[in-house]
Structure formats: C-alpha cells, structure tokens
Amino acid sequence: MFLRFLLALAVLLAAAPATAQVSFVGDWSARIHEDQPDRVPGEEPGDFSGIPLNEAGRRFGDAWDVARHSVLEHQCAPYTLPYMFFGPNQFRIWEERHPDTQELIAIQMFMGTYQQRRTIWMDGRPHPPDYAPHTFMGFSTGEWNGDILTITTTHLKAGYYRRTGVPQSDQSTVVEHWMRHGNLFSQVTIATDPVYLSEPYIRSQEFAVMERNNTNWLYNCEYVMELPTDKNTVPHFLPDQNTWRGEFGQRHAMPEDGVRGGAETLLPDWRPGAKPAAVRPNVNGGFRPEDQPSKLAAGEVKAVHVQGNVHMIVGAGANIAVQVGEDGVFVVDTGAAGTSEKVLAAIKSITPPGKEIRWMVNTTFRADHTAGNEAISKAGRTVNGNTADIIAHENVAAHMIKAGVPDNGRPFKTFFEQGRDLPFNGEAVVISHPETANTDADSFVMFRKSDVIATGDIFRTDSFPVIDVEAGGTTQGVIDALNRILDLTVPSKMLQQGGTYVIPGHGRISDEHDVVMYRDMVYIIRDRVRDMVAKKMTLAQVQAARPALDYEGRYGSNTGPWTTAMFIEAIYKDLGGQTAAPATRSAK
Q1: How far is C-alpha 232 from the geometric centre of its chain's CA atoms?
Q2: How many angstroms separate the CA atoms of 520 and 66, rounded?
Q3: What is the DSSP string of 242-253?
Q4: Rounded (to 5) percent helix, strand, coil in the chain
Q5: In Å, what is the CA distance from 111 to each residue of 29, 114, 555?
Q6: pLDDT for 229-242, tens place per residue?
Q7: Residue 155: per-residue pLDDT
Q8: Distance between CA 321 and CA 336 in Å, rounded?
C-alpha cells in the first residue's frame, strides 16, 4: 500500500505543469470528521494503534504519565510539527516576496492555537548544519511540483505523535504535500523517525478557508507550581505498572496486539497473533541529501555564533565556548589533542583586532576537553604578561596530577567552593561546581548578559551521561546538576524554546526544553534501575531487562568509549547493586 501511494504521488507530481503555483494565502481551519475524538478532546491513554511504532516507542508510551504535563518546564511547551496540525488548529498563511522581482522568498505561517511562527523557505537555501538549534516547528524548505507544494522539515525538537505520550524524537524529519482545491486545502504528512518508528508514518487531513479570518487563541503562558510537590519530580510509570495498559482495547473491543501499534498491524491482512511482518528499513524517508543537516568535514573546526558575545567552536573533540569583547577572549575548555592549531584559528576568526585570550576554564579533567590547555594558554596572556590563566575546581587539578598531566597543561587558578564569578567583556561570568555530577570535578559556566550556559559533559546531546563512579560521579549528582541548569535557563516568549541557549559538552546548541528532556531521561532510567536493585536483580538481569530501551536509539551505543551497557552498569553500581556474586562459605 505504501509503495502504491508513492507511485500514485509520483505520477501526480510528474503530470502537473512545472510552472503552476497555487496560492495558499488565507486563514484556514481544520475540517474534522470521524477523527474528532482523536483531535479535539484528545486520544485515550494507551492507544498506539495506527502508528508504525517500534518497541522503544511502546516502552516510552507505557512509561508516560499524564502528570508529566504538570512539570514546570513542560507546562508551556506546544506540540511539535508532526502533531501540531492534528490538534484543534487554525492558522494564517501569507507570502514573502522580493520587493523588486516579486519572486517568492518564503511562505509564512502563524499557528494561532499554539502561537508558533513558521517559515517555509522557497529560495533554495540549504538546511542548517547538525549542530544548529532545534525548534518546535523545525526548519522547512519548499518546492513546487506542479500544483503541489512539497515541504521538507528538519531540526525538530522532541515531542509526541499523540499527546498521550506516543513519542517523537528530535531526529525525526517530515515531508508534507500541500494541495488546494478551491476552498479546501489537503495536506499529507510523512514523518520519519529512526528512534521510535519502524517505517514512515503517513497521515492526511483537510482544512477549509475561513471567511471571517483567523480567531487567534492568544494567551500568556507562565509555568508555575500548582501543587506543593518537589518541582524536580518527573512523573512516570515503572515497567509493567502503567494503570492504563489494556483499558483502551477493552473499552473498544479491540485486540491488544492492534492497540499496541506497529508497522505490521497497518497491513490489511494482519490478524491478532500473527508474526510481525518484515518492515521496510526506516532510514532517511527518501529525503534528498541537500535537505539533510550538513555535518562537519573530517578534521574541520569552526566557530558558530550562539548569541550575545558567545560562540561555540565545533569539531575539536568536545565543544568549546568562546566569549569575545573589549576585554579580550574568555575560553571554556580547549578541545582534544591535535586540534589546538585549528581551534586557535577559529578563535582568531571571531576575535576583535588587538584582543587576546585572557581567561580559560576547564569544566572537567577529561582529555577531550583539556588536551589543548597548554597551547591555548600560551597563545594568550594575562594583563601582567603571563600566559592566559586557567580556572577550574581543585579536583580537576588533582585528577590531572594523578593522570600525569604536565604542569603547563593543568589549571593553577583553582577553587574549592561551589563556584566563582568574575566580570569580563561587560557581563558577569559565573562558574558553578556541583558537589558531584559525572565526576567530583565538573563545572558549568554561565555568561549572564549573553544568556548562554556552557555545561561541559553534565549535559550532552550525543550520548547517555558518562557517570564515572570511580572518579566520584553519581547518578543523583547528574540529575541535581541538570536541575541547577534548568533553574538558570529561561525560555523566550515563543513558548518554551530559545531564550537561554545551552552549549553542551558534545552535540548541538540547545535550550531549556532540550535539557529538561535529557533530565527526564536520566531520572526515569535511574528509577527503573533502582527498582531492579531493590528486587535484588543481578547486573546481568538488569542489562537483559534493558531499562534504557526507549532511549537507546537516541543516546545509546554498543561500541566506543561509552556504551549503553557501561551507562547502566554505572547506575547499577552507584545505587548499590551487587556486581559480583557473594562469596560462598567453605564446608567444614
């Protein structure tokens, strides 16, 4: 059926005249038919039917508790693009054209229900690189295929395919096909998600033009404590404890296998109890290479402006934050071995003439963050002519001494308290040290006026947190550190995105929503492992139960320096799990 759909669509696109451009300008409202219960009051918990959901998606959905919406940082978050059109919805469309040539530059949308502004670029520009921020609407480009407008969207935040916890990852991409027939506007969406879907998820719907214009549902959203509870609690169900499981199928006399979703259940000849059918690999959904986020070339190092005085240097092993201004240059972390020459060139490209590197901070003792200390320090100097000073918690220096790092590569401006602050380039620079996080030596740095936080490895978007128990790291310490970062982040007026930007130790530029989703992940996996430890399960049994299943496709790895198994073992050890069988007494 899927292949027939694509074939029919291809024929339709090829048959349409190449120069035709239909106008979608106007105010539109959804036409709701038999799907009204699904789209207006909302889906029922536990209903995964009709979605090519994989096992990771089911695990996430089973863990989801509706009380999650009460968590402070979730209260104002709108839906993401793959679901936003399917709730109650009205929107306005207008065109942006070149003032002289009248060429179409972009199609603009305002989603009245969710106060989201969307731009669909029509001028052929490429999609942003993979280290660029993600948003609820993503980055969209469009092209005409006769009368059909085809739109490709990348850089989406994590969200839901259904508002009852059916997850959509921030690795998803969406292709839309828009078709207009008089006062009706048909939309086909094809969502591809390598984390939670086993094949593309296709939906279609219609909108009708509004004669009396858009009724915008504008509102101020301020997240507040509504109940006297711990604001950092993440409501969720442990495995096999979801109280909604099975209720939907019983109410509607549906087989539980069908309620649980999956690509095989979408086939017309599927029957309950049948073996899962072979599904198509869920790769890139047929998107063209130019529509995909570009990646740095091997060995490339470059500086990317974040906001205010702060830039992020990518490609140097770990991310480096650089603040520039009239006082000079402030550097957070220095990158991996062998990258210093390129890092200095990137710093020079954003440094005002005559300004030098004055201060440096190490957020950790790890070599991928600090191997460039000596070279970067010698390239700068303090006001008294010495090489640029390196600031770090005293435990950073202690770990480096233990590892045999030479004097010139270690920080000597150390502190033992919870943090330090100093003025530089017209803003306060605040260095914070959690008592414990990934190790006992981590720090994060906030540039207060620029509203940017460099987190080091406390937060990263490319893997599970590296919890080094032997170096003083704890799972609760990571959660506490993430909560401290969330206390400092403030989103912009666009409902839970932008505002304070976050430079992770590794990965893309982020904001509060990205950090809270990461915090939730660590919190939920910690609770699962803790429950298993309480049940006296061995490490092998815990690993076999895969407590991180719903996040493995996003953050996990079976190879490399930090695997999913190592992450689970670190939590297990930290929570007191017995990694070895107890010694047996010899018989007397």
Answers
A1: 19
A2: 14
A3: -TTTTHHHHHHT
A4: 25, 25, 50
A5: 10, 6, 32
A6: 899 999 999 999 99
A7: 97
A8: 14
> Token match 């666009």: residue?
494
Q: How many CB atoms lie within 10 A of CB 187?
A: 19
Handedness of CA 39, 45, 51, 56 (dihedral sign): positive
Which residues lie closer than 8 Å to 280 by C-beta, 6 or more apart? Answer: 2, 199, 263
Whole-angstrom distance, CA of residue 161 vs CA of residue 168: 6
CB 434 within 8 A of CB 458: yes
Q: Where are the alpha helices (DSSP H) in 226-274?
A: 247-252, 256-259
Phi, psi of 505 (to 5 degrees): -60, -35
Residues 373 and 389 sit within 8 Å (Cβ to Cβ): no
* Confidence at residue 582, expressed as pLDDT on a 0 to 100 scale: 47
* Whole-angstrom distance, CA of residue 540 vs CA of residue 492: 45
Q: Categorise residue 438: left if φ over 0, alpha if ψ from -120 to 50, beta otherwise.
A: alpha
* 431: nearest Cα among 456, 411, 401, 450: 456
Residue 197, classed as helix, strand or coil, is strand
Residue pair 137/118 in contact by the 8 Å Cβ criterion: yes
**3 state SS of 73:** helix
| Three-state helix/strand/coil letters over 418-449 | CEEEEEECCEEEEEECCCCCCCCCCCEEEECC
Task: Tell me if 280 sits within 8 A of 52, measured CB to CB.
Answer: no
Helix (H, G, I), strand (E, B) or coil at 407: helix
Distance of CA 107 to the CA centre of its chain: 26
| Arithmetic mean of pLDDT, 371-392 | 94
- The pTM (predicted TM-score) of the whole model is 0.92
Output the pLDDT for position 5.
57
Q: Quick one: what percent of the chain has pLDDT higher than 70?
A: 91
SS3 118: strand
β-pairing, 173-181 vs 320-325, is: unpaired
